[in-house]
Write a structure and sequence with these properties.
By secondary structure, this protein is mostly helical. The two termini are about 30 Å apart. The longest helix is centred in the N-terminal third of the chain and has 19 residues. It has one domain. The protein is about 45% helix and about 0% strand.
C-alpha cells in the first residue's frame, strides 16, 4: 500500500487509522468475521512503514500493481 501522509502525522497514527478503519469496515461487511475475533483485535500489534522517494515511487507502484504475479504459487 502506498499512501500520502502529511508530514505532521506520525507513522504510528497513520497505521492506527488504516488498521482501525479497515477492521471496522470488514466487521461491518462480514458480520460473521467478528465471531473469530471476540476481543475485536483483527490486526496484530506490529507494523512496518517505510518512505518512498520520488526515484523509487514508480518501481514501488509497479510492484504493488503487479504483486499478484510476485506471489503466485505454481503447482
Amino acid at each position: 500500500m502506498i499512501i500520502d501522509v502529511s508530514r505532521t502525522m506520525s507513522d504510528a497514527k497513520a497505521i492506527q487509522l488504516i488498521k482501525g478503519l479497515s477492521s471496522y469496515l470488514l466487521f461491518r461487511i462480514c458480520e460473521n468475521l467478528r465471531k473469530g475475533y471476540p476481543k475485536g483485535h483483527f490486526w496484530n500489534e506490529g507494523y512496518f512503514c517505510d518512505g518512498v522517494g520520488s526515484s523509487d515511487f514508480a518501481r514501488s507502484y509497479e510492484y504493488i500493481r503487479n504483486q499478484e504475479e510476485h506471489h503466485l504459487f505454481n503447482y
